[in-house]
Design brief:
There is one protein chain. It contains two helices and eleven strands. It is mainly beta. It has a four-stranded antiparallel β-sheet, with no helix packed on it. The chain has a four-stranded antiparallel β-sheet with strand order 9-8-7-10. A hairpin with a 4-residue loop joins strand 8 and strand 9.
């Protein structure tokens, strides 16, 4: 078992490949770490700012797609040469009932994302949820803020007494910006249950 710093980078399953050492994974925000170093719980990531943040000055819009919870983020730029791996976080195809949220970013003018608030939903096993969802939660929605004091919610806010929602805030150090996101996709097999209604630096 790997202990100490860089547990996720060295022990987790990554897609499309392992993040380079220069990317700070901010592991202290992703708990419990040990739960993601065994079994099939692949991590996926997107560095929308590119190496060293070279594409941040070309970022013009962030678009989210969701259906009850956040499913995917798309990043738009004013340059065609920004590679495809920097343009999408999450791979779920939108459907007819998928909601879209757009947040225009003035990257060419120096605007950057400097704070992200993550909201995770925790369902009870009594609702037919897999045990991993009840222990580690699922991504419900995000709130992003910029160095110009603007903010946008990605996903649909909700409040439930039955399903606790945990709020975690991440802020970039002064003079820096949030450059990417990573998250885990939990793959489980469970018995069919009654129907019930995922940083970056993550």
């Amino acid at each position: 078992m790997v202990s100490g710093h860089d547990i996720l980078r060295r022990s987790a399953i990554w897609y499309p490949d392992i993040p380079p050492p220069m990317l700070n994974l901010n592991e202290s925000s992703f708990m419990p770490l040990q739960a993601y170093t065994w079994g099939f719980k692949p991590f996926f990531w997107a560095c929308f700012g590119g190496p060293g943040g070279i594409y941040l000055t070309h970022l013009t819009k962030i678009t989210s797609w969701g259906s009850g919870r956040l499913l995917r983020l798309d990043f738009s730029f004013d340059r065609d040469e920004v590679p495809a791996e920097c343009r999408r976080f999450g791979q779920i195809k939108e459907g007819e009932d998928t909601e879209r949220f757009e947040f225009v970013i003035d990257g060419p003018g120096g605007e950057v994302v400097d704070k992200v608030v993550v909201y995770q939903e925790f369902r009870s096993e009594g609702e037919g949820a897999a045990s991993s969802f009840s222990r580690e939660g699922t991504l419900a929605w995000l709130k992003m803020s910029t160095n110009r004091g603007r903010a946008c919610d990605f996903g649909t806010r909700f409040h439930s007494r039955r399903r606790p929602v945990v709020r975690t805030e991440f802020s970039a150090a002064p003079g820096t910006a949030i450059n990417g996101f990573f998250g885990a996709r939990v793959c489980t097999i469970s018995l069919k249950a009654p129907a019930t209604p995922t940083k970056s630096n993550g």
